[in-house]
Amino acid sequence: MFDLLLEPLRYPFMLRGLCAAATVGVVCAVVGSFVVLRGLAFYGDALAHTILPGVAVGYLIGGGARKPLFWWAMLAALASALGIGFIARSTRLKEDTAVGIVFAGMFALGIAVISSVRNYAVDLTHFLFGDILGVAAADLWLIGIFGAAIVLVVLALYKEFLLVSFDPVLAATLRLPAKLIDFLLLVLIAMAIVVSLQTVGIALMVAMLVTPAATAYLLTQRLPAMMALASLLAVLSGVIGLYVSFFAGIASGAAIVLVTTAFFGLAWLVRTIAGR
Amino acid sequence: MSTFLQKLSRTVGHHFSPHVHGAPILRLRDVRVEYEQTVALDNVSFEIQRGDRVAVVGPNGAGKSTLFKVIAGVERASAGTVEIFGNEPEGHICIGYVPQRSQIDWNFPVNVADMVMMGRVSKIGLFRQPRREDREHVRRALEQVGLTDLAKRRINRLSGGQQQRIFIARALAQEAELLLLDEPFMGLDAAAQQSIFEILERLGTRGVTILVSLHDLNMASKHFGKVMLLRSRLLGYGAAAGVITAEHLVAAYGAHLHMVKTADGALMVSDTHCEGCE
């Protein structure tokens, strides 16, 4: 049994994958707690999809090199976040409509760019569903540095994020720069998505943002506990998911997301039974 | 690192306005607030002195909530001026605005003490943790509204009256000198209403200035030193007897008013609006 658990660790790509999955899990859980509390799931899903044209262009220009993709993805996500805010404010359209427009438009642009290249299917699959076993040491550095930065900013501005999310009117009477803090939160969500791109891919990203945080929400009473439990669950899901993927031979991103979903199902069951 | 953060905090943070000596705590001059099609407030002028307790009454849509938001500096007047202690509301953090209870997501994962601590965010400052002083403010605020025992309770397990009291505690932790309460009595039973009255009375004697919007005219005249009757315009302001008159009420409530002269000469008035439509 023990040998079986150790076996995957003999492969460096598995070790790197586990490190990436754990880091990404913590980052997504911390940021995702705010996504859940503020009802930003659709926004997060959309933002994940809008990075596709970024990585596509980066891929074309870089001739398949990995590293520039990160920055191109970041650029696309930030541009989309700005675009959504700008459209919603200048047209009086509801924000989710603006999100929908930018989401679909950018995603289509990404597909269009990728489809102009030869081995279309293979690369698109990597972007859409992740390629965690392909994480290189350099990728791991980027994930680690940006992930740490994101978590540190959330912790440093914890009480401001909490206040702006819970009661924006009080934030205004306390003369907090609420719009700036809100925008910073959206930027952090965008960064978390880019950092997580390689683990679960664009299509399943929203699960990393939402599912562990939602599970923790069901089981905790206060936000710090919710964030901590969400992080723990996300790390566990990453590790268990990768093992399942290794032994059962299924796609790693899907395996990780299925484990988070299983955790949610368990928590939901426990709550429903305990609530009776 | 920490001195850098302090500097940054000071740069980003507000420089809050001083209180001009001798200026009234609140003065409005010709305030007008327009939304796209409607005029919410028109030509409203009045002064309120420190320690006043004022009931703001008027039909739904009379602009009571708008008035409070303009005073709190959350919304801007289209014309006219609002002065708190002699300068703009936007510079002050001494205004405690208590929204209607429905404005808050009570399922948020915070407990009573967490929510009251939010009133101290500006005083704590950017990048900082609550200090002992802040926790002491929270403790005293909870004590004043009688919620000390519930400090660790999650806010979704509070009654309506307790929710209202935690709002007031939060404003106290904020060290608010001007308290604006939007429909605090709505949906509360008599006992809960009574406990809010008692808290407000105690605060009044300590020099906290209080504006409360409400529907019940009897309550307004019975419990508050001054009454303000609003219907976009200011129809009357002063002692209840001079404000709640037949003439003013017809002007305020118009078609929704039913007046019956009874045998003993009393005037019966009913506002047929449902509560909480606003």
Structural write-up:
The complex is a heterodimer of chains A (276) and B (278). With 276 residues, chain A is an all-alpha fold. Chain A is 84% helix and 0% strand. Chain A is globular. The model of chain A has no long low-confidence stretch (mean pLDDT 91). Chain B is α/β, with parallel strands linked by helices. A six-stranded mixed beta sheet of chain B has the order 5-6-7-3-8-9, with helices on both faces. Chain B is globular. Chain B starts with a helix and ends in a 7-residue tail after the last strand. The chains are: A mainly alpha (276), B alpha/beta (278). The A-B interface holds A 37, 156-157, 159-160, 162-163, 165-167, 169-177, 217, 220-223, 225-226 and B 12, 14, 16, 69, 72-74, 90-93, 95-97, 99, 103-105, 108-111, 114-115, 117-119, 121-122, 124, 126-127, 130, 154, 170, 174.
Outline of the structure:
By secondary structure, chain A is mostly helical. Chain A has helices spanning 2-6, 12-37, 41-50, 52-62, 67-91, 95-115, 120-129, 137-156, 158-166, 168-173, 178-200, 205-219, 223-248, 252-275.
CATH architectural category of chain A: Orthogonal Bundle
Q: What's the count of strands of chain A?
A: 0
Q: Determine the fraction of residues in helical runs of chain A and give it as a percent range.
A: over 70%
Query: What's the total count of β strands of chain B?
Result: 11
Rounded mean pLDDT of chain A is 91
Strand share of the residues of chain A?
Answer: under 5%
Order of helices and strands of chain A: HHHHHHHHHHHHHH
What percent of residues of chain B adopt helix (DSSP H or I)?
A: 25-40%
Encode the helix/strand succession of chain B as letters: HEEEHEEHHHHEHEHEEHHEE
What is the CATH top level name of chain A? Mainly Alpha
CATH superfamily of chain A, by name, is ABC transporter involved in vitamin B12 uptake, BtuC
The helix-and-strand class of chain A reads mainly alpha
Termini Cα gap of chain A: 39 Å
Query: Quick check: average pLDDT of chain B?
Result: 87
Unreliable residue stretches of chain B? none
Please count the helical segments of chain B: 10
Query: Largest sheet of chain B at a glance?
Result: 6 strands, mixed
